[in-house]
Design goal:
Blueprint: E1 2-7, H1 16-26, E2 32-37, E3 45-46, H2 50-55, E4 63-69, H3 73-85
Antiparallel strand pairs: 1-4, 2-3, 2-4
Length: about 90
Amino acid sequence: MLQTRVQVINEVGLHARPASLFIQAANEFQSDIEIRNETAGSDWVDAKSILSVLMLAVEQNHIIELRAEGADAEEAIKALKALIESDFQVN
């Protein structure tokens, strides 16, 4: 299982459009991916579920943790971390 931490810099956190983009990206991978709001001390939730991600109430400057397990776990972690660090800029 691979794991990483990342700070959310988006002004609305992981809500609305950023959450939607995050979920879309997570669903491109076969691996099981989970996310938690480290800042709020939340439990791990399914990173491919919009409701679960929204329930984390991730705000700007919160630290989140991502973990993935499966055939494409490394690619998933790298892609999701890059998406968050880019402030959800998609090409």
